Amino acid sequence: xxxxxxxxxxxxxxxxxxxxxxxxxxxxxxxxxxxxxxxxxxxxxxxxxxxxxxxxxxxxxxxxxxxxxxxxxxxxxxxxxxxxxxxxxxxxxxxxxxxxxxxxxxxxxxxxxxxxxxxxxxxxxxxxxxxxxxxxxxxxxxxxxxxxxxxxxxxxxxxxxxxxxxxxxxxxxxxxxxxxxxxxxxxxxxxxxxxxxxxxxxxxxxxxxxxxxxxxxxxxxxxxxxxxxxxxxxxxxxxxxxxxxxxxxxxxxxxxxxxxxxxxxxxxxxxxxxxxxxxxxxxxxxxxxxxxxxxxxxxxxxxxxxxxxxxxxxxxxxxxxxxxxxxxxxxxxxxxx
Length: 337
What we know:
The chain is of the alpha+beta class. It folds into 2 domains: about 35-145, Carboxypeptidase-like, regulatory domain (Immunoglobulin-like), CATH 2.60.40.1120; about 160-335, no CATH class. The protein is built from 7 helices and 16 strands. Strand 11 and strand 12 form a beta hairpin.
């Protein structure tokens, strides 16, 4: 065997193995990430499952597992959007006082391709004892929590969304003030029923399902509140139904009141879930939530869920996106001028 041939083969193998192992010039490197871990407990050192954990100033978040543990993974793109200074973590669970604590004294500079892990250990939430008549033991948890049911968080993708017009909020000091104004507007617009849910650091108000025409205008009563397919009210509508497929248009409006930013989930909500919202929510806002302060950080977001039923007997599906803006839906419904 010729030594020169062996050496040549060796160098070929070395180049193939180690040369290919190096990233090609210009190959993108994964961005850095921030991972915050910990466990949420009460003062008795018992785990609190289902608590919401979020990084202040960013959308999204995480929920604690059955042992109260959480892993909050934040992309570098979100971290770099934070203002310079301390980085804070928000903790929330119904029936407990919200907690904000500092994770880092300064916004971190993450290294590409690496994950910076920050273990927080045990984090204790204190019970909100301002109104003990509003608390019970529910579900899988043995902890005291509010009777207010939780809305799926983040909420499902709506047909359209918008912020509530500013005039509604002028002078509001407590969450109950916001509720009073929303309730008065809904009452004037003909909505007789509504349901309340708990969301991180606030509440959600859900309207009853209503039927509209194809221009988002409510149908005359009693058809407005009926789930049955619409029938022709005059000769013009009869001719229209004869020439075109008769379709049912339905709408549910959700108002979220919270200082916690959120990105809606990707799931498409069926009509039945929207109708169940009214059945499973509370009929009024509990005092424990209503007395919370309405701060400058609080945002009232309008989520409009529009459904279309193509034919009688077939299930309705979510319209995404809506042909109309959120403000147009509010105006057509008579909630805003």
